[in-house]
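REQUEST
  id: r-88c1
  op: predict_structure
  target: NAD(P)/FAD-dependent oxidoreductase
  payload:
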Amino acid sequence: MEREKLVLIGNGMAGVGTIEQILKLGGAYDITIFGSEPHPNYNRIMLSYVLEGSKSIEDIILNDRQWYEDNHITLHTGTTVVRIDEDTRQVIADNGLSVSYDKVIIATGSNSFILPVPGSTKEGVVGFRDIADCDAMLAAAKQYRTAAVIGGGLLGLEAAKGLVNLGMDVTVVHLLEDLMERQLDHTASSMLQAELKRQGVKFAMGKQTVELTGEERVNGLRFSDGTELQADFVVMAVGIKPNTQLAKDSGITVNRGIVVNDYLQTSMENVYSVGECTEHRGTCYGLVAPLFEQGMVLAKHLVGASTQPYEGSVVATKLKISGVDVFSAGEFTETAEHTVISAKDEWKRTYKKILLKDNIIVGAVLFGDVTESASLQKLVKQGSEMTDEIYNEVMGTGCCGGGGAKQGLSVETMADEEIVCGCNGVTKKAIVDAVTENGFTTVDEIKACTGATRSCGGCKPVVEQILQFVLGDSFQQSAKAGICSCTSLSRDEIVAEITAKGLKTTKEVMNVLDWKQAEGCSKCRPAVNYYLGMIYPDTHEDEKESRFVNERMSANIQKDGTFTVVPRMYGGVTTPEDLKRIADVSIKYDVKVVKVTGGQRLDLIGVKKEDVPKVWEELDMPSGYAYAKSLRTVKTCVGNQFCRFGTQDSMGVGAMLERKYERLDFPAKFKMAVNGCPRNCAESCTKDIGIVGNDGGWEVFIGGNGGIKPRIADSFCKVKTDEELVEVCSAVMQYYRETGNYLERTSEWVERMGLENIHRVIMDNAENRKELAARIDFALAQVSDPWKKMLDDDNTRSALFEKANL
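RESPONSE
  id: r-88c1
  status: 200
  body:
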């Protein structure tokens, strides 16, 4: 039988998600997909990660072109459908291409809403909706300094944080006094704003933009109160509007969105609509989960499977904004008719609120810890009555109750069709089936099969709970995952085997321990190389081929193929002579940008590859290791040498620590800071080891992180002398080196190992502390500056810097 022809108009998450469901259900269609963008299906939610630089465009592709070929789908990218001709059963594209259909799915999504104010069409004004917008923002950050983001919703905040990370001075302009007012209450909004301020974002709240100023290019904003804001670049993120033009031009009923019934049918026979372009029962949804729920109903309907009609979605928002987890479901702003249950912890920066109406759970808000989000979403959706049991389960001793994190309510009670992974539309049933039908025992296997956790990773705890629920008693022994897909061995097992068998090289490890891939992969090779160096610091010969490109080159490669060279400045202190040398070398080798870093050093940005060795040679300064999994910087304040508040010599101690620990490999990059007083000008609270001076000595903090997942460091101990300080720092560093997973920051290590356990190993056992310090001293005695080796080795220098390939 000839297959029916199914045409999908729109290559985004909602439409392709529907196609994926049809394929899983065994639907026998001849499928054609049109996408206006030149890219295959990608995860729009992850655009902010591309903007900030932690992911590439390739990283956020959900279905590459091979997937379309493997599933016999005809894909037309860069092609916009302009009309559906019902009489001839044809869809007609802007390039003249026409394709016949039996059924059509419209999934054209939405467009950025651009404020209709004077100046909105000037150069330098963009939305934030697709990869092209992302590219425009990346380009602007290279040329301009100040930016304004109009709109304090999710996209606006993500755009702002991305531009800040790109070095721009960014102000978020918002009409109301609360950020994300459609998802968060006043308390959560205030906490979010405070956190984003700490990350460098500025705010102009309660401001109505009435004009964008400038000639051909924008140069500022004028507000209704007469005040102005300078901006060389403006991002409009004030909302989205359903993209309904195709439906209108085809004679399909359109209101705010394309009007559909409970089976997602439009007013035109055999034409359906899903996603942000769709209006169901008067509502257009802009969040991912409802769009996947629509897609599942439509997929079942199209393959003739039994399905309940789509009756709308309980809107729940679970997001990660600049590393901060937030969640809301149902009603979140209390009124006089609500009973409010709430808890707030300003130290941990967490907040939890549940709203009841006549003792029925009608809404919830979580900030900072969203462990209970799946449970609360279900309770709100079902309209559950609050009981003592539910109260204890949900409030318990979780994020705000002073104890360890809760695991949430049992996943056993979750409905099969409940979406666990909102980014990729993966249901509980899909995960359960993956485990029972394929014998999967790890989250990585589930991720490879279903896509759950492959995007933001926020659903990983729930996936783990489902895995444990399905496997039962066998979970603990079978759920262990190897360090990568090449081996089932964990980090600890690999280290134990290397030590027990006396394995000396990466190839030897992989051969003896039966690696599935003889040469390993980009994930395990650097890890094994690190473990060998940590175990045999005096005899292991570092394997450059196992290093990441930046580490092989001893410099940071940039997107244009040039490099950034970062000389060491101990404790952020330099001399006029060194500054002059940096300036002279920068001029000689046409270095376009010299940037002061967050670690109080100077980046020399834009060095041509062939010039990198000559730059290092003429600088004649130690490498700052800005590219390595090692000590990056020790940030300092001016301390008691100059500051009227200073109680300790922070500059001297910072420089001493940086000189002592430089060049040594760690599981991940390592940062320190030393404050001369508790005023914390050097920001010790967000460093791997932070040191704060007081009148009686030093207080040591560990496990801080100011990156994509910010974490405040934990107070570890207090010491009186510099000698005690060095011993404690050495012991903490070596214990981290010996027990940390490769690429695991101390923020994750502290949470995994437990602060009390680390304290017990180091502070409660003086003999062990001294042994750890002795081992790191032995390892430090073996290190040397990589550029001294490089400059003396003509063969390596020629291979790396005079050939085309890295």
